[in-house]
């Protein structure tokens, strides 16, 4: 039995993908009455839940599961962990970002809140709609305990959902978080009409920024070159399906954006900009995004701030 906490698009997609392979899945959410009744997910374009997926609003249903996938918005994770008495012994974070209060990622939050639990992170280039449709997807499973990571890799992999394993939890956390910030910047570049060459340059310099911060915090460079870093960056910066890219595109084009849509990169930009200042790490793209989304700088000034930086060796 596998538990999924969070009946949003990504949590539901994971429940569908696992349920389709015959796994017994319990999918928890606060307002899941309509989903339980219809068995159809509006968030995923009407995808039907397999019969093996049970929808529940009772969090105690997670206690008897082999592993619980935590698919909540990043900024809701700390509050959920504080307010929950869930007794699951294996927790897998399925969200991307940096907590604004603690400046840490989701797996770190879980380890601090549940020190006796086995904690892992599932991240990488993936759109919920693709997973729900059964399209081939490869993800990173990060777990500091490699034996536990191997067990989870076998448990959660399917014929079309391929998991690659790492013990570098910090690198996997940061790759998934930081690519959202760079995706906002990439969307802004395209929305402002600056062209594909500018997007390529922005992605490249953004990737260098991701690696610089990750190495300073103890991650491995090869983790950032993998699915959870470079792979996710390519997907998120290159597709309008990405909420972060679409948000940035609206910023660049000066068009409205649906305020009800969660854009994880906004809070992450604020958190990482603070982290960079505290650690003395130069993060120009992140600082620009944080200033732009907070209204402390306009688009013209943001572009100028990047283009007028001192010339240097690559």
From TrEMBL:
Q: Where does NADPH bind?
A: 10, 30, 96, 128, 243, 264
List positions binding NAD(+): 6-11, 128, 243
Domain called Glycerol-3-phosphate dehydrogenase NAD-dependent C-terminal: residue spans? 168-303
Query: What pathway, per the record?
Result: Membrane lipid metabolism; glycerophospholipid metabolism
The entry's sn-glycerol 3-phosphate-binding residues are: 96, 124, 126, 179, 232, 242-244
Q: InterPro entries, alphabetically?
A: 6-PGluconate_DH-like_C_sf, 6PGD_dom2, G3P_DH_NAD-dep, G3P_DH_NAD-dep_C, G3P_DH_NAD-dep_N, NAD(P)-bd_dom_sf
What are the Glycerol-3-phosphate dehydrogenase NAD-dependent N-terminal domain coordinates in residue numbering?
Answer: 2-147
Quote a single Gene Ontology cellular component term: cytosol
Has the keyword NADP been applied to this entry?
A: yes
The yes or no answer to whether the keyword Repeat is present is no
Q: What Pfam families does this protein's entry cite?
A: NAD_Gly3P_dh_C (PF07479), NAD_Gly3P_dh_N (PF01210)
Source domain of life: Bacteria
* This protein's UniProt keywords: Cytoplasm, Lipid biosynthesis, Lipid metabolism, NAD, NADP, Nucleotide-binding, Oxidoreductase, Phospholipid biosynthesis, Phospholipid metabolism
Q: Which reaction does it catalyse?
A: sn-glycerol 3-phosphate + NAD(+) = dihydroxyacetone phosphate + NADH + H(+); sn-glycerol 3-phosphate + NADP(+) = dihydroxyacetone phosphate + NADPH + H(+)
For this protein, the Enzyme Commission number is 1.1.1.94
One GO biological process term: glycerophospholipid metabolic process
Residues forming the catalytic site: 179 (proton acceptor)
Quote the subcellular location field of this record. Cytoplasm
HAMAP family for the chain: NAD_Glyc3P_dehydrog
**Protein task:** Catalyzes the reduction of the glycolytic intermediate dihydroxyacetone phosphate (DHAP) to sn-glycerol 3-phosphate (G3P), the key precursor for phospholipid synthesis.
Q: Which family does it belong to?
A: Belongs to the NAD-dependent glycerol-3-phosphate dehydrogenase family.
Q: What is this protein called?
A: Glycerol-3-phosphate dehydrogenase [NAD(P)+]
Q: What organism is the protein native to?
A: Paragemmobacter aquarius
